[in-house]
Design goal:
By secondary structure, the protein is α+β, with helices and mostly antiparallel strands. 32% of the residues lie in helices and 24% in strands. The mean pLDDT is 91.
């Protein structure tokens, strides 16, 4: 009896090719290089320890071919005579170092079916981005080429891929697959429930459901697609729901409940999947994403081969600039306890693909993965509980840190990804979400920070407060201080806060001018003419530094605390600053100023108030010092109660009462 080999990763192409996204699937370009070691990317790479010999080699495209006309369905490609195409791309190269590090496999087998004359050439890379030819064959007519590729030199990084070189006639790729070696099966044969939390995004969500249901190969590993609808605009009433329901059939289930944030929606998905007892994994997805459905299949296959239960995350690309990778690896900077990328952010694979980007070849072990796409084994859910009930921020990072404390790693798997609206047009640290940013970060730190008394977190929080005070953003400071006070109340309120904290936070804004977003230019107050700052193409002004900063800080603080604003401040702003110009040390010069938001859809009006500044500055010092003073007591309290507040029983009581 012949057992079909396990296909670990299919070589695939978008059914309806988007020119922006195509560099993620293939590299049709001819490249050249220049050398420069003093640009921002290189300086960042040096600071993060990513700089290696040859890192200053800067790629530039010589051609402008995207290969869109070469595509032939989901699996095939027709390469014109004498052309070359490389599959050293995000979705079609094989991330060998990740499979080597986390799974039971010792190698892979590449199988390539072609029609026509040409060559198939196989390459590998190491962690430094050095590329080596591994093997190659000439092909003609109808040919199946196979290559056995052991994982014997992928400890720190490295990928595998192949190129096609057409001969004197068209060379067609019929199909290609990366397979498990004979006799190397999975550790487990699991399947997944996909859980999507949605809030009034019916068009996005129904399109996502239809995309998932349209891929039969991915659906072989999906038992159920669960939608937790927390909005007032019901997804079942959206015009796209009929197609989604048709494609998913009885595997689609919709649960309606009150808006208890992403953590409440995703916890409902964990809870339902665990209680159903059918799936081995739950895959959490945001509702406002587009997905490459092969990503779901790859995540499940990778998890099945992992040597221990592992959280498998997908990467995030920009939905409106599809070749831009938000971050390849993310983690916690422990001193200030702040999340952030370990790798250059918003890397453009159209401008520098896998062959041209040395740092992409290193394997990165992450602290967490965003819940825009994350596979979690149900065995982990049943061992460590559900999400922390923290509403909208830090739930994903905290969960991964908790899992790691129990011996379960998180892997951000190359080749598994979604497209999501990026953070470029967002600054949610200055609207109502500022409360949840501050509170949830502090709670996560109390639970997981390895630093004595939270390390530099209290100082980082104090610095944020002072910057916001200097920009006359008193509403944000009020929310941040309410967040700290909420933490002092203890973890017992976290579940009830999911239901009523949001309206209370928004109600705080009623007394602050800057809390109102002015969208209509006609309602924005006019301001007098001012000197237009010179626009430079160099690095932005970093602000005062060194001894000059000490002098500047004292003068600015005195002015904001004691000097009365001009008589016209409350009726006429002095300027309107674009978002990119509204740095805290620039805004602090004004008594009254309009500031555009990140997406350019409106502006907020900031008016200096010495009395508020004095009171809030004192509160900022007092509250942040108290967090340091009471750290050990608070940390013990939150850590002791963590199992109870994240348990299935507690979540069930909180959620089942909100179902509609």
């Amino acid at each position: 009896m012949t057992i079909d080999p396990i296909v670990l990763q299919r070589v695939i192409f978008p059914e309806h090719g988007d020119p922006q996204a195509l560099p993620l699937y293939l590299d049709a370009e001819t490249w050249s290089w220049s050398y420069s070691g003093d640009n921002d990317d290189d300086l960042l790479a040096k600071a993060r320890g990513l700089f290696t010999e040859g890192h200053d080699r800067r790629p530039s495209r010589v051609t402008s071919r995207n290969g869109l006309s070469w595509l032939s369905g989901r699996r095939g490609l027709n390469l014109p005579a004498s052309e070359t195409v490389s599959f050293a791309s995000y979705f079609n190269a094989f991330p060998a170092s990740y499979w080597n590090a986390w799974t039971s496999l010792s190698g892979t087998r590449l199988r390539v079916r072609t029609e026509g004359p040409g060559r198939v050439v196989v390459f590998r890379s190491n962690a430094r981005g050095v590329i080596q030819r591994v093997d190659g064959v000439e092909v003609s007519g109808s040919t199946t080429s196979e290559f056995v590729l052991p994982f014997n030199s992928f400890l720190d990084g490295g990928w595998l891929w192949f190129d096609l070189i057409a001969g004197d006639a068209e060379l067609s790729l019929v199909q290609a697959d990366w397979l498990a070696l004979d006799g190397e099966g999975p550790v487990t044969d699991g399947s997944a429930t996909v859980s999507i939390t949605t809030l009034n995004r019916g068009a996005y969500c129904t399109k996502l459901l239809a995309e998932i249901g349209d891929d039969d190969d991915a659906m072989r590993y999906i038992d159920r697609v669960l939608v937790v609808d927390q909005g007032s605009e019901k997804i079942v009433e959206n015009e796209g729901f009929a197609l989604a329901s048709e494609r998913l059939g009885d595997r689609l289930q919709v649960i309606e409940q009150a808006n208890v944030g992403g953590s409440g929606g995703f916890s409902r998905g964990m809870l339902e999947t665990s209680e159903a007892g059918v799936s081995d994994y739950v895959i959490l997805l945001d509702d406002d994403v587009e997905i490459e459905p092969e990503s779901l299949r790859r995540a499940v296959l990778f998890a099945n081969h992992c040597t221990k239960p592992t959280i498998v995350g997908g990467h995030m690309f920009d939905m409106y600039d599809k070749s831009k990778l938000h971050a390849f690896a993310e983690g916690i900077h422990w001193g200030p306890f702040m999340w952030g990328p370990f790798t250059p952010a918003r890397h453009d694979l159209a401008e520098s693909n896998l062959r041209q980007t040395n740092w992409l070849h290193r394997r990165f072990d992450v602290d967490y993965n965003g819940w825009w796409m994350s596979l979690i084994p149900i065995s982990i859910v049943e061992e460590i509980g559900l999400s922390l009930p923290v509403f909208i921020k830090w739930d994903d990072a905290e969960y991964a840190l908790r899992a790691r404390a129990h011996g379960h790693p998180t892997v951000s798997l190359p080749g598994a990804a979604v497209w999501h609206v990026s953070w470029v047009d967002k600054d949610d640290s200055h609207d109502w979400q500022a409360f949840f940013h501050a509170r949830n970060r502090l709670v996560a730190a109390l639970l997981h920070s390895p630093m004595a008394k939270g390390g530099k977190l209290w100082r980082a929080n104090l610095a944020i407060d002072i910057k916001n005070l200097f920009t006359m953003d008193y509403y944000t400071v009020a929310m941040r201080h309410a967040a700290i006070r909420n933490v002092f109340e203890g973890p017992s309120r976290l579940h009830t806060d999911m239901l009523d904290r949001l309206p209370r936070v928004r109600a705080l804004g009623s007394g602050f001018t800057e809390s109102k977003l002015l969208r209509d230019p006609a309602e924005m107050p006019k301001f007098a003419a001012r000197e237009v700052p010179e626009i430079t193409t160099g690095r932005p002004n970093p602000g005062p530094r060194g001894l000059r900063f000490v002098s500047w800080l004292a003068k600015t603080a005195w002015r904001h605390a004691w000097r009365r604003p001009g008589a016209a401040a409350a009726t006429r702003p002095e300027a309107h600053l674009p978002y990119q110009d509204a740095r805290w040390f620039e805004v602090s010069r004004y008594d009254s100023v309009l500031i555009s938001n990140a997406e350019g859809s409106g502006a907020t009006w900031h008016i200096r108030d010495p009395r508020r500044f004095r009171k809030m500055a004192v509160d900022a010092v007092r509250l942040n010092l108290r967090t340091r003073r009471d750290w050990n007591k608070l940390s013990a309290q939150y850590r002791d109660q963590l199992p109870a507040i994240t348990s299935a029983e507690t979540w069930s009581r909180s959620l089942r009462g909100t179902s509609k």
